[in-house]
User: What shape does this take?
Amino acid sequence: MNLVKGKSYFISVTDVVLRSEASSKSKAKNHLLYGDWLKYLGEEHNGWAKVRSRRTNGWLHKSNFSSERPLEINFVDIGQGDGCHIVTPDDEVILIDAGIGDNMFRFLNWRYNLRNRKVFGVDGVDDGEPAGVTPFEIDHVIISHPDQDHYYGFRHLFDSKKVRHPDL
Assistant: This one.
């Protein structure tokens, strides 16, 4: 596939590691999953391409790229049942149910690397600093019914300054 600088691509395999250099033996920078968004940064070396994904620059082998974004659906064990994390081809994030505990929050913390996300005004990062980013955005929240074991876990997400969510 001929890559175009600045164009968006997506991970086409189950999982892959974003590397610090164009080598499978270089330091791991992040773990990416099927459907994750990539931006090609215009550099290639021995079948590897430099990309940006999950707010991190690194190298991936070109065989892991697709130009088509799939619908991504993840079922998350939230205790008594499953919650659902959906990412649409248009990059909208939808959450359905979050249980009573913090399982959905822990999943999103891992999935979007929230621990290491340096959010403007939250982690001592001032506006305009290159290391800073905006909070992770959740576009839609669905609570299947009003029992506490379906919605109470959302409090962990709503309390986090690293997450922006729709007003309920």
Summary: The first helix runs from residue 103 to 111.
